[in-house]
Specification:
By secondary structure, the protein is mainly alpha-helical. It is built from eight helices and no strands. The radius of gyration is 21 Å and the shape is elongated. The protein has one domain. Helices cover about 75% and strands about 0% of the residues.
Length: about 170
């Protein structure tokens, strides 16, 4: 009886491990596919399409997945290139995509938090450069607009659930 119980426990444990590995592999392969699609779009200079695929690659996040880091670098490159070419709207899309992708995959920790911090600075800079949208906005300096934008970006929107959220 005891041997049978131990055997059943090992079988159940083995099934759980195999299922976990299958999910991990599926997610990892999804990240690779999206990264490669992003690379194809970059080669054809279709930056909006590239942003979409790099963002998806990050959404297929698994720990130690090098394609997530490579996708983040490519999104940053698109943003930088767009800024250098005076296309601030595309740069904003790239930086916002990068920032939101890492917030989308957070759990009890936020992976690649340093990218979020870098994006916050770039986004607030580009938002401050935008044309004023109201009379009160016209009276604000670049620094005031950047500070307001940065304050919004740095606001903590972490969802806390009861006791577990306080840990």
């Amino acid at each position: 009886m005891k041997k049978r119980l131990i055997r059943n426990i090992f079988i159940i444990f083995g099934i759980i491990v195999v299922m976990f590995i299958m999910v991990f592999v599926k997610v990892y392969i999804g990240s690779i596919k999206e990264f490669k699609r992003g690379e194809e779009a970059m080669e054809s200079r279709d930056y909006n399409e590239a942003i979409t695929h790099y963002e998806r690659s990050i959404h297929w996040y698994t720990p130690l997945n090098s394609y997530v880091a490579r996708s983040a670098k490519r999104l940053w490159e698109i943003g930088t290139l767009a800024e250098e070419n005076g296309n601030n709207d595309l740069a904003l899309i790239a930086y916002r995509s990068l920032r939101s992708s890492f917030y989308a995959v957070r759990s009890f920790y936020i992976p690649y938090k340093e990218w979020i911090d870098k994006c916050d600075d770039k986004i607030s800079h580009l938002v401050a450069l935008k044309r004023p949208y109201s009379e009160s906005d016209k009276k604000k300096s670049y620094n005031q607009k950047k500070e307001e934008s940065l304050k919004i970006l740095k606001r903590d929107y972490t969802y806390r659930m009861g006791f577990m959220g306080s840990l």
